[in-house]
Amino acid sequence: MADPDLDFQTGESGASTTYPMQCSALRKNGYVVLKGRPCKIVEMSTSKTGKHGHAKVNLVGIDIFTNKKHEDMCPSTHNMDVPSIKRTDYQLVNISEGYMTLMNDSGDIREDLRVPDSDIGKEIESKFESGDEFSVTVISAMGEECAIAIKVLASNK
């Protein structure tokens, strides 16, 4: 009756990391999955309907984690995946061995996020060493997370 290979021990909600959207409904500065990567749409053009009656949409997007450029073409009537993106602000508590200790609004601590190798990462480290209090904006999509921005908190001086 029951399959012994099924394992229900993981606590995932079962929510999908992406949702479908018709290609013609996508907009510039929106998000889309191009070549398996979550991207922000930076350029979009639609070609005229051809002999077989489908207008094609040409999409150019920048990967939200690696900043690499991806291009794709899709008939306007077809669906494309749009990543479910979540932004969270954390207060930086500490940096040790390349990992950030972050605290959310409810006081929960997480220590599993690496300092990014980009300019934002350098800025986070320099502001932390100078003793500034600031929050880090973390974006998560499709099982990946990355710090993308920092915001200096109002000083109590």
Helicity, as a percent range: under 10%
| Total number of helices | 1
Q: What is the total tally of β strands? A: 11
End-to-end separation = 68 Å
Percent range for β-strand residues = over 45%
Counting helices, strands and paired strands, the structural category is mainly beta
Query: Strand-and-helix sequence, N→C?
Result: EEEEEEEEEHEE
Parts with pLDDT < 50 across at least 5 consecutive residues: none
Mean pLDDT: 85
Biggest beta-sheet profile: 5 strands, antiparallel
Radius of gyration: 20 Å
Globally, the shape reads elongated
Task: Kindly report the spatial arrangement of strands forming the biggest sheet.
Answer: 9-8-7-10-11
Write a concise keyword list for the protein shown above:
157 residues, mainly beta, five-stranded antiparallel beta sheet, four-stranded antiparallel beta sheet, 11 strands, elongated
Can you put this structure into words, describing what you see?
The protein is mostly beta strands. It contains one helix and eleven strands, in the order βββββββββαββ. 7% of the residues lie in helices and 50% in strands. The strands form three sheets. It has a five-stranded antiparallel beta sheet, with helices on one face. It has a four-stranded antiparallel beta sheet with strand order 2-3-4-5, with no helix packed on it. The model has no long low-confidence stretch (mean pLDDT 85).
